[in-house]
Amino acid sequence: MIVQYKDVLLLIEVKRNAENCLAQLKGQVEAYYEAQADPAATAAATAANVRALSWAQVVRLATNARNLRQLTGQASPYTADFVQLIQYYFPQWDEVLSFHNIPFLSGLGINEAALYKRLQYIQQQAFGDELMWLSDRVAMPIAVPWASEVITRPELHGTVAYIGVNVWPGNTKAQGWSLYGRPLAWASQRSIVVDGVSYPLAIEQYLKFSHFNRWVFEVPVPATPEGQPNSFHTYSAFKDYSGRWWRDSWPELAALLQHSLPEQWMAHQPEWQERFLNTGRAYTDVALGFKVTVLLPYRQLQQLDVAVEHGEVVANLLIATIAALQELIDGPIA
């Protein structure tokens, strides 16, 4: 890449990875001067300022330039767009930013990569070696028989941004035994108190189909009108639906679902056909579980998290949220 501005000439050698291209760049500079047939070429090539910059340094320079321009009222859309692009697609090129410095949305959508990077940094502070680094997610531990992990996700509800703290009670039949033998009044709640503050609470029930311990698809169980009992919040529903269904019993399972969840089951017929009926699979495991989400307003987190090195305030809030979820389902801890 060659950029010329008045009497300044920039020759840029770009690598996608961490390869040091300094020697190659010096060769490019020397070749350029030799091509000018200028008697002073050798001296000029020797005097050229050749330096290597990592992507992290480039992003820091661009971010500092953007911030300075904004402070002086001379914002540049080119610099701002470049920084936004990097934060969205390549957050690993930049240092960890506090929530205060991460806009939830950009022109490209939710800044998921930058948000997840900060969340993982904070969760590492909170849980240390107990934090679970899995192939497709980072999960916080929860010491209960009805769930094994808690996951944070950025969520946009209408125009309001949240960080959702999610747990899946009863995501397997083994976990379900500790839920369905007692009242499920908590499943109707729409708010939860964490450290004296009330937050929105979203609870959804579902039937999860899996095979060989891997999720395949799930069928939502619709909520009932307020005040009416839910026929799926019962031990008998758990006993009827949850567990391993061998292929020869699939017609019975399909008939149950067609009777109890006609619209939802009909909507998932293509998945049932493609991923089970038309395969060589001999069984499906079914779990009658819940997804429980505490919605922490992102604006509040931005006010709490203003410095990269001081993430303990949000870390403590996450720990308190997990404790509140446990108390929601198990009742007050004696």
Explain this structure.
The chain is an alpha+beta fold. The protein has 2 domains: 2-95, no CATH class; 112-330, no CATH class. It has helices at residues 22-35, 41-47, 55-71, 77-89, 112-127, 173-180, 235-241, 250-260, 262-267, 269-277, 298-304, 312-330, and strands at residues 2-5, 8-11, 105-106, 109-110, 132-133, 138-144, 147-157, 160-167, 191-194, 197-211, 214-221, 243-246, 283-297.
Query: How would you sum up the global shape?
Result: elongated
In terms of per-residue confidence, which ranges show pLDDT below 50 for 5 or more consecutive residues?
none
Distance between the termini: 67 Å
What structural class should be given to the helix and strand makeup?
Answer: alpha+beta
Please summarize what this structure is.
The protein is an alpha+beta fold and 334 residues long.
